[in-house]
Automatic annotation (TrEMBL):
Protein's UniProt name: tRNA (guanine-N(7)-)-methyltransferase
EC number(s) from the headed UniProt entry: 2.1.1.33
Binding sites annotated in the UniProt record for S-adenosyl-L-methionine: E43, E68, D95, D117
Family according to the record: Belongs to the class I-like SAM-binding methyltransferase superfamily. TrmB family.
Xref: PROSITE patterns: SAM_MT_TRMB
Gene field: trmB
Amino acids binding substrate: K121, D153
Role, per record: Catalyzes the formation of N(7)-methylguanine at position 46 (m7G46) in tRNA.
Alphabetic keyword roster: Methyltransferase, S-adenosyl-L-methionine, Transferase, tRNA processing
Length: 212
């Protein structure tokens, strides 16, 4: 997601450090206490925050963390999230490359990859959030039988991801090549997803289970 630099973004992120956690490694092993929850979901690449904000509003007993590396985009998400005060969500405005230093082994219940950047050129495939290098980090951080829920409009990214998960020992629990053919009120629709749906594009979705 590209966005022009916003002069207010950086000061806003720093002023709201109770919500945008500046040193996430300090919370490693304590996220559930911080968010007052028993279940922890993490969205990596949350963009403007539509998905994790809606999902954390639907069920306040579940904790949600939105991770976004673009600090201008993260500031937009944080501003939106802070319109409603709730203790079950927060953000990390950093590159998920470092995710393994922010959480303790087995601390996360579910990771969401919602409409991740496809990085279509092969030379950039290591940047895809479903590349094997990322999957190995996620495996450590997820609990045994924890899940990754992936949704995308991009067929190429979906096919790549199915192979990566399979080659790295993940179990495929569920798959759909037209997820929105049926109603799914339990699953939020981000602005991004709505745009693809309005164009009539199928939404691909898969759930992978982490087996340690
Ligand atoms: C296409 S947007 C998806 C937004 C959102 N998930 C949604 O469903 O509306 C993908 C976002 O992932 C972010 N991103 C990509 N790689 C990342 C990384 N390594 N760490 C954190 N964020 C990342 C991008 O900056 C971009 O804002």
């Amino acid at each position: 997601m590209r966005m022009r630099k916003k002069s207010w973004a950086e000061p806003f992120l720093m002023e709201n450090d109770h919500f945008v956690i500046q040193e996430p490694q300090n919370n490693s092993g304590h996220w559930k206490e911080v968010l007052k929850c028993d279940t922890l979901h993490v969205e990596i690449g949350c963009g403007k925050g539509d998905y994790f904000i809606q999902m954390s509003t639907m069920d306040p007993s579940v904790g949600w963390i939105g991770i976004e590396k673009d600090r201008n985009v993260a500031a937009v998400a944080a501003k939106k999230a802070l319109e409603v005060t709730t203790s079950n969500r927060c953000m990390i405005a950093l590159d998920a490359e470092q995710i393994d230093s922010w959480f303790k082994e087995g601390e996360i219940d579910t990771i969401h990859l919602n409409f991740s950047d496809p990085w279509p050129k092969s030379g950039y495939k290591k940047r895809r959030l479903s590349h094997g290098n990322f999957l190995n980090k996620y495996k450590t951080l997820l609990k045994d039988h924890g899940q990754i829920v992936m949704k995308t409009d991009n067929q190429g990214l979906f096919e790549f991801s199915l192979v990566e998960f399979s080659q790295n020992g993940w179990l495929l629990e569920d798959v759909s090549v037209d997820f929105r053919r049926n109603e799914h009120p339990e699953d939020a629709i981000s602005e991004y997803e709505a745009k693809f749906m309005s164009l009539g594009q199928p939404i691909y979705r898969a759930i992978f289970v982490c087996k340690k």
